[in-house]
Amino acid sequence: MASIQKTPFEKPAENCTPTPPNPLTPEQQTKYDQVLTAIETWDTLPKTSAKNAETAPLSDSEKQWLTRECLLRYLRATKWNSTNAIKRVQETLVWRREYNTEGLTADYISEENATGKQVLLGYDNEGRPCLYLLPNKQNTNTSPKQVQHLVYMLERTLDIAPPGQETLALLIDFRASSARTNPGVATAREVLHILQNHYPERLGRALVTHLPWYVTAFLKLVGPFIDPVTKTKIRYNEPLPQLVPASQLMKVSGGDVDFEYDHSIYWPALTELAATRRRERKERWEKAGKHIGESEVYLWGGDAPSVGAQDASAVQNGAETSTKDADEVANGIANINVNGAETAKATEETKPATETVQPTTSSNGAVTDATKENGVTQAEDDKITPAPIAA
User: Fold this and answer.
1) Which domains does the chain have, with CATH numbers?
2) Rounded to 5, what percent of the chain is helix, strand, coil?
3) Tens-place pLDDT, residues 105-136
4) How far apart are CA 117 and CA 149, in angstroms?
5) C-alpha to C-alpha distance for 125 and 248, rounded to whole angstroms
6) pTM of the model
7) Whole-number Å distance between alpha carbons of 290 and 136
8) Can you tell me whether residue 304 is helix, strand or coil?
9) How high is the pLDDT of residue 340?
10) Coil, helix or strand at residue 5
11) What's 185's DSSP letter?
């Protein structure tokens, strides 16, 4: 008999790996460099979005959040407009301060998830962590804390993503839900605003199943607020076993996992797993030199080197190249000297012997030692007119 699963899976199933990103074009690399250079100059940012708000220095956790992949996500979301990307990154950092994303603790959110209405369980075929939204388990009335709950779970979902996977999968199951248990239009608009503006390029796919008529009508109401790119990632009533390995998919969704939500077991397990991953990332970030623009693959424990290591390698390669070039120049000079010496020696050996002839009397009556050099007497040389120098 298969055991009952009561805790999150810690890693994707075998062979479920992220698709490697395409390398940046020279133009995209230039855009990225512009954004990174601008953000590295930030010393302080406003504490809130209010006009003339008090400012505060960037914290270490904020600097760590500003990874290479983070900046690239904002560039892609703004269609590689570096000015807009910089503006949006700043807006998100201010929002994170104002919303207090780091202050949303497991204890504070716990009551919202007491019935398991949001469950982080398993990974899809490309290693995306799967976050189930189960409206039929709604246990609280509409309030800002419901949105805080979703933000908290988004953060935990991204915490346990495997190295190289930047996106997540939402599995929204409306089975046995009612119109009363679903969020209103105002709440839906707020959630969409947060997702599209502060978690750009994070939604890999949204798989919506058991769609009742009133949800279809609801989606028509909120449809105008959904970004066109986001719409392409939403799929309705597709067979989930084709997208998520059965070994990590709930039985009620067509998989093999007999999952039972026990808050006293699941919640501490998720909290500890996410906290461990965050602690490991912080240690790697500090060890690598606390760089803004650090590699997420490195921070998440992948096989990519840190930015600091890449810079050191580039410096080392540059030094080796300079040393190699200097050696080649030195060898060339040595060869030139050797060859020059041999040429001079050969010239000396082939030079005609000096022929001494009898003294003669010059035109002014002086006696000269008419030594013939290369077959020309000094007297004859006196008579040679030098060629004119070109202007």
Assistant:
1) 105-263 (3.40.525.10)
2) 50, 10, 35
3) 999 999 999 999 999 999 999 999 999 999 99
4) 10
5) 10
6) 0.80
7) 44
8) coil
9) 46
10) strand
11) H
